Amino acid sequence: NAGVTQTPKFQVLKTGQSMTLQCAQDMNHEYMSWYRQDPGMGLRLIHYSVGAGITDQGEVPNGYNVSRSTTEDFPLRLLSAAPSQTSVYFCASSAGGDEQFFGPGTRLTVL
Amino acid sequence: GQQVMQIPQYQHVQEGEDFTTYCNSSTTLSNIQWYKQRPGGHPVFLIQLVKSGEVKKQKRLTFQFGEAKKNSSLHITATQTTDVGTYFCAGRSSNFNKFYFGSGTKLNVKP
Question: pLDDT class for A98, splitting at 50, 70, 90?
Answer without folding.
Answer: confident
